[in-house]
Amino acid sequence: MSRWGTLVVRGTAVVSVLASAVSLALTDVGQATLPVETINLAVISAGAAVMAVLLQRWTPDNNMWRVLLLIAVIGTLTVFVFSLGTANAHPSGVLVAAIRLTDVALAVPWMLFVGLFPDGHRPVPRWPMLVYAGTGILVVLSVVAWLSAPDGAPLPPPGHLPGTGIGADGTGLHGATARTASVVAGLLPLIAALCLALRYRRSGPVVRQQIRVGVAGMATSVVLEVFVLGILPGGAHPGSVHFAVVIVAVGTGAFGVAAGLLRWRLWLVDQALPRAVVLGACSAAFTAAIVLTAVVATGGVHRAQVQGAAVAALVVTVFVQGYSRRLEPWVRQTVYGRRPGGYAVLVGLADGLAGVDDETAAHRIADAASRGLAVPWAALWVPTARAGIFRLAARSGDVELAEVIAVGEDELRDARPARLLPAQSERAPVTPRAALPDDSAALTVLSAEHDTWGLLAVGQRRGEPLTTGDLELLTVITHEAELAHANRQLIGEVAASLDELRERARQLQDSRQRLVAAQDEERRRIERDLHDGAQHELITLAGKLRQMARAQHVPAGAFEDLADQAEQAVFSLQDLARGIYPSVLTDHGVAAAIRSYVGQLPLDVVLETAPEVARRRWPAELEVALYFVAVEAVGNSRKHARATTTTVTLAERGPDVVLEIHDNGVGFDPGRVNGRSGLQHMSDRMAALGGSLLVDSRVGAGTWVTAAVPCPATVGRPDAEVSVRSLIPEGRAAPPVLDG
Question: Which among 605, 687, 610, 682 is positioned nearest to 641, based on CA atoms?
Fold first, then answer.
């Protein structure tokens, strides 16, 4: 609708509400209070005007806003005309005729409202014929009743109940036609309600839910007004209390009707209805029991007794609601059956999907879509490794479906959110439905963070095609399924993270145990080396010194031999110390310590490092770990690989300190190395610092050992002169170019 059309609708609604207020004010000034039914009509007209604006704003395709606007205008006009007639002691003939014909003006819009609720579609094929026939009959009867009315006959109040409002003179032609017109005015909405019931039986779940919500709202409004006015003191007489009750009752009904028209939170009804039925039944039962007790005790019943019984029943119902909730499953099963449909399937859907595997979840999603939309079948396809190819994961209903379908990116984008599929006759030569059954009605994509994980299709419903309301329900089902899928993924990721943490904790514990065992073994080796080497030499030297001290004559050259033995013991201790912790490592850093170590070996070792890296200092535990990895790797090259050349590279690469040792030896198969070997010790040292060790070796092709440790802040820059050479083995990519 254009902007001007919208302004006209809103202006008309505002004028209708103001006119209702002016009508009430007119009768108050004229000291002629309106009847109860006319006050109801004024409030209902104002509510219809507000709902018409809301409906035209949010669902302009729904023609019900036009019917509501018609009710607002005609209802306000009849109240205004009746107010003028009541305030005027001698109303004109035109005014009397207008009041006499209000039954027609009000009955037809109400018939249209009831029959076309909730989406403006005709309830039965011959609906126009019923409207025209009913309107014609009512017009004829009303005109005859007007023409045959005697002078001074009371005017029928607008909004009166069927069979009333005829006036004091109910005999003759006027009485018969007036009474018949009043009855027909009440029958037309009832006929429309019957047609709506027929449509309810063949409608989809969303339309059924809309009808249930609207009927529940209107029924609640009627029950509230009748019940409250029946027990309030002076309820039969209009006044401020009655006016307040009318507003509350009409507001409650308007809320239900608006929710049904706008499809607003319809699933809440499926959650609240069983509880409302249980609480209402309990309250009615308690009221009946209290009134029956009063009748037995006093022999009669009075208004005060009914009032007290109603209040007491309400209090008792509130206190026993915990027990009454036990009846809710039975009520839910009675109302919705063992397998609920419509929005009732959403109750607990996400919770039911969160704790199951993907296959079970797929079947439940397909079953929920099939039951919720009341379609003969629903199916869910999941993506495969091939782009655009989906395989069948679950189906609900007896239907032949393709195990594999192909869907393009354009079709996937069009299916977000859910969309209706064209009829078989309107299908393009190449569409995503090429592999779907001919009666496929709607398609939707299930995704998580823009990644498609499912494709849900449903079949065409028998009796009534799918509507936009059904698409909204399918979208809600899709949303619940996506939430459950995200929850399952999150639970799986948390479980995987916990398993990974447990595995890493176990590996860390094992590595620490291996380190402790290696330290114990190293301590025992040092003890053996001391005992068999330097200790033995020193003991021998000490014995010779004692002999020389007791001897009278010392042979020439004896002290020279002792000096040689002492020097040999010193060399043995130095060799032993190199295997423990060299002082150059503490004083000058890891590069200098590696240089000092490899300088003592009978092996061509090339140390490649940039000057700024050579002077870099890191925490002691990192330098010690890198040093012993280098010692172990170079020692393996010398002892086992029979290498002639070994290259040691120390560099900073990104956030890591990287130590790389490559030899041109015979190589080995890493998968066949004993877990208690030196390679395991090196790996444990790196793991203890959060680093990694990579060993790449092939028989006959040499060995590459790469250790990487996260690089902390520099702790110092002591000067250390380290020679820099460049030697690149054949078949290996060159290391990064180092400046300096």
Answer: 605
The one-letter code for the residue type at 709 is V
Report the 10 Å Cβ neighbour count for 143: 16
Token reading at 362: 């797929």
SS3 39: helix
Q: Which two tokens stand for residue 233?
A: 């003191």
Distance (Å, whole) CA 477 – CA 707:
52
pLDDT exceeds cutoff 70 at 340: no
SS (H, E, C) 480-538: HHHHHHHHHHHHHHHHHHHHHHHHHHHHHHHHHHHHHHHHHHHHHHHHHHHHHHHHHHH
Higher-confidence position of 642 and 395: 395
Which tens digit of pLDDT belongs to each residue from 705-729? 999 998 765 544 443 333 333 333 3
In b/e form, how buried is each residue of 4-25, taking b as 16+ CB within 10 angstroms? eeeeebeebbeebbebbeebbe
Residue of 437, 441, 444, 432 whose CA lies nearest to 405: 432
Burial class (CB in 10 A: 0-12, 13-18, 19+), 300: exposed
Tokens of 613: 């890296």
CA dihedral 484, 486, 491, 494 (to 10 degrees): -170
Of 174, 141, 154, the C-alpha closest to 86 is 154
Residues 6+ apart with CB under 8 A from 277: 331, 335
Query: CA 130, CA 144: separation in Å to the nearest integer?
Result: 21
Q: What is the pLDDT of residues 156-169, one digit of tens each?
A: 888 777 766 565 45
Residue type, position 387, single letter: A
In the block, tokens 């709202």 appear at 217
**How many other CB atoms are there within 10 angstroms of residue 153's CB atom?**
19
DSSP 251-312: HHHHHHHHHHHHT-STHHHHHHHHHHHHHHHHHHHHHHHHHHHHHHHHSS--HHHHHHHHHH
Helix (H, G, I), strand (E, B) or coil at 579: coil
CATH of domain 347-493: 3.30.450.40
Q: Are 648 and 661 in contact (CB under 8 A)?
A: yes
For residue 161, the Cα-to-chain-centroid distance in whole angstroms is 49
User: What is the per-residue pLDDT across 503-561, written as a single tens digit (0 to 9) for each?
Assistant: 888 888 777 777 767 776 777 667 766 665 666 667 777 777 887 777 777 777 777 77
Q: Which residues contact 364 (CB under 8 A, 6 or more apart)?
A: 349, 352, 353, 356
Q: Contact, 598 vs 649, CB < 8 A?
A: no
Reduced to 3 states (helix: H, G, I; strand: E, B; else coil), residue 608 is strand
Angle between helices 205-231 and 468-529 (to 10 degrees): 110
Domain boundaries, the chain: 347-493, 584-710
Quote the DSSP letter at residue 429: S
Tokens of 471: 């698409």
For the chain, state the CA radius of gyration.
47
| Cis status, amide bond into 670, omega within 30 of 0 | no
In angstroms, rounded to a whole number, what is the distance separating the alpha carbons of residues 660 and 740?
A: 20
Cα-based angle 227, 230, 235 (whole degrees, multiple of 5): 125
- Measured CA to CA, the distance from residue 375 to residue 691 in angstroms comes to 58
CB crowding 233-260: b at 16 or more within 10 Å, else e: eebeebeeebbebbeebbebbbbbbbbb
Dist CA 681 CA 675 (whole Å)? 9
The rounded distance, in Å, linking the Cα atoms of 75 and 66 is: 14
- Structure tokens given for 536: 């033995």
The 3-state secondary structure of 667-694, one letter per residue: CCCHHHCCCCCHHHHHHHHHHHCCCEEE
Tell the CATH topology of 584-710.
Answer: Heat Shock Protein 90 (3.30.565)
